[in-house]
Amino acid sequence: MSESGRVFPEAFPLASPELCQLAITRYADGMSWGSDSISCIRPKDELSTLFYASSNQMQVAFSLAEGLNPQFNTSEVYLYEAIEQSTIVFEVSFSTSRETVSHLPGCWVAGLPNRYAQLVPGADYGEGYLMLSVEDVLSAAGRRMEDFGSEGAQLRLSGVEIVARVDVRNYHRPFTWPFHSWNPWRLPEARELECTVHFDVLRDQFNVVQWFHEGRRPIALQHGMRLAVVGTGSVGYVSLQQLATQVLLGFTAFGLAQTCLDYGWFYLHRQSSFIADRAFLRVNLDDRGTAAPAGAGGGVSAAVSASKKGD
């Protein structure tokens, strides 16, 4: 999975000027968290990096803290204005023993729109990318920037760790068309891949995104969101050998069940002996090896005839 961060201020309303005057200078219990000054920085005016992407991980800075010991003794705090309106682009790929798919289109998040077509209309990147804002990711995880974390500070200040679970699967929906080469009614095919993304909060404590040093002495650090991506799924393929095996196994199981039912019905019935006397004619073999019905001399033909007439 690859991610990229971009800011589209024209697609979202700007944050209100009173953002930095909100009661975010204090913990949820009302105690000061260590800074008397909070101001805002516009991301486009900031020279430092706000997005840190690596393999299956994206980090987005929400705030900047400066001080002699910026983690515990902060002198100045800056909030990145409207950083929640920045966007993250998801590109999903997977490999199996049969194929490698470098770009899987159609991934979606339940209840959230894909902003790719809205913000990047007619782009040359191709179709199928999933674009969500930071606010969308928090909403999918059941959180907002104004929520308080477990350490008492708002997420806009402390940051948060979120896990994105990408689920890729096919042949999981009932009543779908099984044949790809012949589909005259253009029904939904069972082989079509379905890609869904779910978000869960892993940790809502202070999350350090990046340290800044002057020589070996730390002078500032960024707090923000760490988004890690894990993948799971089940991808299947059509196999004629497996189809034949399953059909033969089904016929074998049906025949065995029918045989057991017949034997059980005959031997467990309370009048099984009476049914046997009426349905069959007992045959005894004499010393010469010829068959004769018991108590009669009609031979084998008489026994066969009697067995056909019996009910």
List the helices and strands and how they pair.
Blueprint: E1 2-7, E2 38-41, E3 51-54, E4 57-66, E5 76-80, E6 86-91, E7 94-95, E8 100-101, H1 116-119, E9 130-133, H2 134-140, H3 155-158, E10 159-169, E11 194-203, E12 208-214, E13 217-234, H4 240-268, H5 272-279, E14 283-285, E15 291-293, H6 299-309
Parallel strand pairs: 2-5, 10-13
Antiparallel strand pairs: 1-6, 3-4, 4-5, 4-13, 6-9, 7-8, 10-11, 12-13, 14-15
Shape: elongated
- Structure class: alpha+beta
Largest beta-sheet characterization: 8 strands, mixed
Regarding CATH, which class of the largest domain?
Mainly Beta
Radius of gyration: 36 Å
Poorly predicted sequence stretches spanning 5 or more consecutive residues = 1-18, 21-28, 296-311
Oligomer: single chain
Number of domains: 2
User: How far from one another are the termini?
Assistant: 72 Å
